[in-house]
Amino acid sequence: MKIIFYTGPQCSLCDLADVELQQTSKFSSLEIAKVNIRTSTELYHLYGARIPVLKRADNEKEIGWPFTAADLEEFLQ
């Protein structure tokens, strides 16, 4: 499964989200693409106040911070 991880430079919440993501049992089967929202004006306007955000490529569902490993397990099902 491909996950888009919207993040930004020096984002401490993004670091916390990354730790939660790595603790999910499904982590090994994930393809994670980290996207710096500052590279695009459109992405910055969409996600600037909400990062970190994870988005599934298959169904485009999103989960924003704060989330736990249990929340991620449910999101990835």
From TrEMBL:
One Pfam family it belongs to: Glrx-like
GO molecular function, one term: isomerase activity
UniProt key word Isomerase: yes
Keyword Isomerase: yes
SUPFAM superfamilies recorded: Thioredoxin-like (SSF52833)
Keywords, sorted A to Z: Isomerase
Name of the molecule in the record: Thiol-disulfide isomerase
Organism whose genome encodes this protein: Alteromonas marina
